[in-house]
Amino acid sequence: QQLDSPKLTKTKDLVSWMGAVQAQDYKMVKWAIGCRLNLGKLSEVDSAIDNGDIIRTHILRPTWHFVSSNNLKWMLRLSSKKIISANTSRGKLFNLEPELYFKCNNLIEKILDGNQHLTKQEIKTELNIRGCKVDQSIINRIMIRAEADGIICSGKNKNNKPTYSLLEERIKISDDLNDDEAFIRLATMYFQSHSPATFQDFAWWSGLSLSQSKKAIDFIKDKLFVEKHDSSEFYIYDQCYNNNDKQETFCFLPPYDEFLISYKNRTHVLDTQYQSKAFSERGIFYPVIMYQGKIAGNWLYNQGKDEFDISLFNRIDIPLCSIKKAEDKYRFFINS
């Protein structure tokens, strides 16, 4: 996962390596990327967003993710039916009719035409002005549907807030993969960056059906080693198999970080008794500390006081130099 001795320096390369980076928390997902870069800088991540190198959208399970721009279209094709189905079901709670989605799609295309980059609230205001009455709950469903239909994607930062733009204006070059090629690319990206992982982990992360997940893994079987542990079968990507150069790794991880959320079973890195400190029953994930491959505590940073609040789950002897290195890395990121 590039948390131990990261090699990559560019945001787009890192996001491509990971396949996708879950992105509910717009501020902290930038750190999820930055902590995996060699000398990660906030300015580098923001630049990649503004340039359209990475795109934030609902995809895979589906939920918010950053993906590389050249991977967006084929990933969206794999995910769109599931996204539309889930979004339509939620929309029924607000009595949304199919005609409203089509009407809003057409209006949004006109509103954003000409490389406009508008926040969700600005688009909501424009829709209401043009006779499409939507409140806060409905605009969420409208925007997700427009993403799934390939109308919109994320735009440039505006006052540190995310915006939307037209996908076809935003992304000029995108890889054109058929379904089999897409399965191969998705499975390769996942296992190269998330090994060791199980079949169930991949199916959870990708949002693919079980049969599609099996097909994808079968395509790259020659690249995977298989090992059994605690009655589970783990796949390990061949480039990861003999990578034993482990460091004294202490990391501040953001909420919804891939280290936890991208696996169906998290008990291998998080003791069951501490799960409530890492995520809630409602699926809210908290900032956590990773030490030597295990989730070991929580952290908060008070920027005004330039202080870290570190709370460990149990008594463990962590070298002060490891903690200071992690603190310096976070400070360097947010200030550069």
Task: Describe the structure concisely for a colleague.
This protein is α+β, with helices and mostly antiparallel strands. The chain is 45% helix and 16% strand. The protein has a 4-stranded antiparallel β-sheet with strand order 8-9-10-11.
Provide an overview of this structure.
The chain has 336 residues and is an alpha+beta fold. The protein has 15 helices and eleven strands. It has helices at residues 11-18, 26-34, 42-50, 69-91, 98-112, 120-129, 136-148, 167-170, 179-194, 199-206, 210-219, 238-241, 258-261, 275-278, 320-334, and strands at 21-22, 54-59, 63-68, 152-154, 164-166, 224-229, 232-237, 250-253, 288-291, 294-302, 307-312. The strands form four sheets. A four-stranded antiparallel β-sheet has the order 8-9-10-11. Strands 1-3-2 form a three-stranded antiparallel β-sheet, sandwiched between helices. A hairpin with a 2-residue loop joins strand 6 and strand 7. It starts with 10 loop residues before the first helix and ends with a helix. The mean pLDDT is 94.
Overall 3D geometry? Answer: globular
- Nearest-integer average pLDDT: 94
Q: Decide which structural class fits the backbone.
A: alpha+beta
Strand count, sense and barrel status of the largest sheet are:
4 strands, antiparallel
Write down the secondary-structure element order.
Answer: HEHHEEHHHHEEHHHHEEHEHHEEEH
The share of residues in extended strands comes to: 15-25%
Q: Write down the Rg.
A: 20 Å
Give the N-to-C terminal Cα separation. Answer: 23 Å
Number of contiguous helices: 15
Share of helical residues: 40-55%
Spatial strand order of the main sheet? 8-9-10-11
